[in-house]
């Protein structure tokens, strides 16, 4: 289990997934939701017959209790032992409510022949990843969607240009060949998509398939910046938007209209209007109108000294980004040559 030693933060964040046989998911949903709500935990957990996936946050004591519930004392028994778990910490709650959802798959690929419980590729530890991806005989593939890749990726990685993981199958069919691509290395945010992607490639006749254990997040957590081959920031699915090395808060923000992640360059574009539109949704008038009204309500709430409902976490994240930028500017000025 990856854990950052930051106990002084009031909220502990748990990202967890495990492919495991859970034919009784319908019976598991209500007890799990009741347990989390009773502990004040918020976030989303997805249950499917193939396993569990999700990210939640709460007090350190609550999250520790949830870990015990999932892996030992709860109705899951020992089925989730050995799950991929990552812990981080936050100053404010990154989620607004608790949801436990039932789905056919914990990560949707719609490939019935794929079974990560039966076969997956070879796990590669973050410490060994650089040596692997620098080999000329290895094809490196980013299995994430295009908006995630746009914020950051590994050097030399191929971008499948997918808008959903289901499209990954088409990419493989059109651009990868088991007769030509003898060694394929893949990576994703936390590792879960690569479990299915590597299993899928093996089912299609690819011989040697590797994937980054713990995903980009684990790599950024343990790899010194000067040794890193990851360029940019890693998109995360909460109000932090992105993280960098050491899992520090990144500089990306979300467009309030289309929810596309935005870099500093995007925010400097002529089509960016704070709270209303961005270069990725510039022609969607309906989204702009809804976002403009939401921004108006936020501005009114701000004038009255009130927090707009649902925006506390986002506002705090932006405050921390601004503080980070100010600190970087002070450091730059202090180190300027005379």
TrEMBL record:
It comes from the Bacteria. It is an enzyme of class 1 (oxidoreductase). Residues 134-228 form the Rhodanese domain. It catalyses: uridine(34) in tRNA + AH2 + O2 = 5-hydroxyuridine(34) in tRNA + A + H2O. Residues 302-338 are annotated as: Disordered. Residues 316-338 have a biased composition (Basic and acidic residues). Keywords: Oxidoreductase, tRNA processing. Pfam families: Rhodanese, UPF0176_N. Its EC number is 1.14.-.-. Catalyzes oxygen-dependent 5-hydroxyuridine (ho5U) modification at position 34 in tRNAs. Belongs to the TrhO family. This is tRNA uridine(34) hydroxylase. It comes from Devosia salina. The gene is trhO.
């Amino acid at each position: 289990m990856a854990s950052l030693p930051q106990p002084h933060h009031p909220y502990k964040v748990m990202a967890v997934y495990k492919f495991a046989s859970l034919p009784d998911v319908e019976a598991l949903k209500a007890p799990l939701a009741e347990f989390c709500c009773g502990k004040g935990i918020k976030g989303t957990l997805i249950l499917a017959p193939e396993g569990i996936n999700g990210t939640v946050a709460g007090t350190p004591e609550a999250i520790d209790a949830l870990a015990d519930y999932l892996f030992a004392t709860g109705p899951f028994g020992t089925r989730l032992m050995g799950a991929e778990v990552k812990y981080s910490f936050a100053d404010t709650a990154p989620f607004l409510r608790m949801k436990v959802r039932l789905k056919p798959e914990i990560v949707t690929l719609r490939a019935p022949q794929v079974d990560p419980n039966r076969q997956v590729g070879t796990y590669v530890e973050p410490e060994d990843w650089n040596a692997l991806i620098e080999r000329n005989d290895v094809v490196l593939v980013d299995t994430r969607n295009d908006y995630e890749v746009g914020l950051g990726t590994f050097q030399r990685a191929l971008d499948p240009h997918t808008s959903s993981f289901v499209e990954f199958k088409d990419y493989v069919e059109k651009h990868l060949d088991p007769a030509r691509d003898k060694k394929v290395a893949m990576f994703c945010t936390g590792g879960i998509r690569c479990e299915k992607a590597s299993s899928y490639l093996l089912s299609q006749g690819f011989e040697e398939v590797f994937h980054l254990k713990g995903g980009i997040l684990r790599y950024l957590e343990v790899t010194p910046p000067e040794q890193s081959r990851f360029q940019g920031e890693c998109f995360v699915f909460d109000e932090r938007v992105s993280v960098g090395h050491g899992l520090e808060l990144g500089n990306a923000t979300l467009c309030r209209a289309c929810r596309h992640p935005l870099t500093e360059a995007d925010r400097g574009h002529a089509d960016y209007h704070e709270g209303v539109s961005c270069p990725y949704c510039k022609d969607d008038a309906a989204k702009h109108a809804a976002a403009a009204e939401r921004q108006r309500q936020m501005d009114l709430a701000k004038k009255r000294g009130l927090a707009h409902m649902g925006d506390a976490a986002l506002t705090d994240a932006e405050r921390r980004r601004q503080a980070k930028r100010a600190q970087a500017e002070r450091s730059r000025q202090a180190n300027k040559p005379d």
